[in-house]
Amino acid sequence: EDQVTQSPEALRLQEGESSSLNCSYTVSGLRGLFWYRQDPGKGPEFLFTLYSAGEEKEKERLKATLTKKESFLHITAPKPEDSATYLCAVLMRGKSGGYQKVTFGIGTKLQVIP
Amino acid sequence: NAGVMQNPRHLVRRRGQEARLRCSPMKGHSHVYWYRQLPEEGLKFMVYLQKENIIDESGMPKERFSAEFPKEGPSILRIQQVVRGDSAAYFCASSPGQLFNQPQHFGDGTRLSIL
């Protein structure tokens, strides 16, 4: 069965304390992996797409990396405004082959304390 | 440059009533996806539609739930005879085409509460 697991479920960091969030997956036919940020009461906001092992993407204090079994979201010197839930989603080949299907992990709730 | 628009943002229904959730995709987007999110749970896929076609409804309960995306107008997720277990946040996302080259963009959801 296709699975997407994010860890830790929750993470509390001091401002400036760098860390990494993990997204591991067991899916067949991976076509890509997305990272989203979700603030309370809002919809997910797109951050990155990664397509192949070894690929890296960066945006401000965030860097996403991908291996064959997992992805990491590295947060460097976080600020309180980085507090949010970070969601990982995998893009898989659909059953009919004609489209792709997205499966989300539960997310990591990040709190950055001033 | 409007994003995905969902309305209403909050909807309260009594058990047995109908709920209609609307989603207007981003301009130029012809693919719409509906997800359901419960507290402490991830986004669960419900249905994927293109204009006038349901592509994949494998995540949608077979009873009471239906979705459409007509040629004109917003996509509608309809829940008939609502029950307490239908209380959740329902999110809509859209994309201009298939997802390999472009991600989904989400609306801010409709929070459905069943009394």
Indicate the multimeric state. Answer: heterodimer
Give helix and strand order of chain A, one letter per element, not per position.
EEEEEEEEEEE
Give the largest chain-chain interface (CB within 8 Å): A-B, 25 and 25 residues
Give the structural class of chain A: mainly beta
- Radius of gyration of chain B, in Å, reads 13 Å
Largest sheet of chain A: 6 strands, mixed
Determine the mean pLDDT of chain A: 92
> What is the 3D shape of chain B?
globular
Number of strands of chain B: 11
Average of the residue pLDDT scores of chain B:
93
Helix share bin of chain B: under 10%
**Beta-strand residue fraction of chain A:** over 45%
- Compressed to H and E, one letter per element, the order of chain B equals EEEEEEEEEEE
What is the tally of beta strands of chain A?
Answer: 11
Q: Outline of this structure?
A:
The complex is a heterodimer of chains A (114) and B (115). Chain A has 114 residues and is mainly β. Chain A has strands at residues 3-7, 10-14, 19-26, 30-38, 45-50, 56-59, 62-66, 70-75, 84-93, 100-104, 108-113.
Present the secondary structure layout.
The complex is a heterodimer of chains A (114) and B (115).
Chain A: E1 3-7, E2 10-14, E3 19-26, E4 30-38, E5 45-50, E6 56-59, E7 62-66, E8 70-75, E9 84-93, E10 100-104, E11 108-113
Parallel strand pairs in A: 2-11
Antiparallel strand pairs in A: 1-3, 3-8, 4-5, 4-9, 6-7, 7-8, 9-10, 9-11
Chain B: E1 5-7, E2 10-13, E3 19-24, E4 31-37, E5 43-50, E6 53-56, E7 65-68, E8 75-79, E9 88-95, E10 105-106, E11 110-114
Parallel strand pairs in B: 2-11
Antiparallel strand pairs in B: 1-3, 3-8, 4-5, 4-9, 5-6, 7-8, 9-10, 9-11
